[in-house]
């Protein structure tokens, strides 16, 4: 989780900035240059702490939830298949969302360009959210996060299962790790195609205390569609796809290796 956070954080802040913008976004490389000019290299890692710390309970909840659901589906007579992994992945999005939402609220606030001067650092942001808005504010966007994570996990684990059927299990060493990375990358990018609109809605909800946090998930999606057009539902898609693809590759390769080593 720590390695994943450090590697993908520059993509993550660009993704968030793109999603929060109501205007046309610049190209990816130009966005990186603008961030560098805004605050130097450290600006790329604004909001890293909640993302990095939150990765431990988030990934634990995701994989534990998926493993629990897989075992119970197997006990009910459903053998391992793409469909079973899809359903188990969908269930895993619920505990994962509960675990990650408070960290996501702090991270999104830190990455919001309009709040750069309001929050000095991650701890300052957490303290101000708690003192100004109350503890429940840390769970703004929980419903939307459940939709986002359940859809992504369902497609991700279903795709991993489908692609694993074609993997040559006899490969070992570097070839095996590269194969795992390629499988995780492909599954992560594919899953992002399906959950991207919910991620945009989540970012809009969590961006500030004045955000539309009392609107329903589909109400916000409808507002974006009516006011900004269908393409706005996929704002930040390119950095998000690479961020989730790389994250999915690192996550799958690491989990698969650790799981195999403990068996």
Q: Give the percentage of residues in beta strands.
A: under 5%
What is the total tally of β strands?
0
Low-confidence stretches: none
Report the helical percentage. Answer: over 70%
Shape: globular
Class based on secondary structure composition and strand pairing: mainly alpha
What is the CA-CA span between the terminal residues?
A: 21 Å
Sheet of most strands:
none
Number of helices: 9
Whole-angstrom Rg: 18 Å
Mean pLDDT: 89
Order of helices and strands: HHHHHHHHH
Describe the 3D structure.
By secondary structure, the protein is mainly alpha-helical. The chain contains 9 helices and no strands. The protein is globular, with a radius of gyration of 18 Å. The two termini are 21 Å apart.
Q: Brief overview, please?
A:
The protein has 263 residues and is mainly alpha-helical. The protein contains nine helices and no strands.
């Amino acid at each position: 989780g720590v390695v994943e956070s450090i590697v993908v954080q520059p993509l993550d802040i660009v993704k968030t900035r793109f999603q929060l913008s109501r205007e046309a976004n610049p190209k990816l490389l130009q966005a990186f240059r603008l961030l560098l000019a805004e605050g130097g290299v450290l600006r790329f890692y604004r909001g890293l702490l909640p993302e990095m710390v939150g990765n431990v309970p988030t990934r634990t909840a995701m994989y534990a939830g998926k493993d629990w659901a897989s075992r119970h589906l197997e006990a009910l007579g459903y053998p391992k298949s793409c469909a079973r992994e899809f359903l188990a992945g969908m269930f895993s999005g619920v505990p994962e969302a509960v675990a990650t939402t408070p960290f996501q609220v702090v991270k999104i606030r830190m990455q919001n360009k309009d709040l750069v001067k309001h929050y000095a650092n991650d701890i300052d942001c957490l303290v101000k959210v708690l003192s100004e808005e109350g503890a429940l504010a840390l769970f703004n966007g929980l419903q939307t996060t459940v939709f986002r994570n359940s859809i992504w996990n369902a497609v991700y684990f279903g795709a991993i299962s489908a692609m694993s059927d074609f993997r040559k299990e006899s490969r070992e060493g570097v070839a095996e790790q590269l194969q795992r990375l390629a499988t995780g990358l492909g599954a992560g990018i594919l899953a992002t195609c399906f959950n991207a609109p919910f991620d945009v809605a989540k970012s809009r909800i969590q961006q500030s205390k004045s955000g539309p946090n009392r609107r329903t998930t589909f109400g916000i999606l409808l507002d974006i569609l009516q006011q900004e057009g269908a393409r706005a539902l996929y704002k930040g898609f390119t950095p998000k796809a690479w961020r989730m693809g790389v994250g999915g590759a690192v996550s799958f390769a690491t989990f698969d290796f650790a799981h195999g080593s403990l068996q």
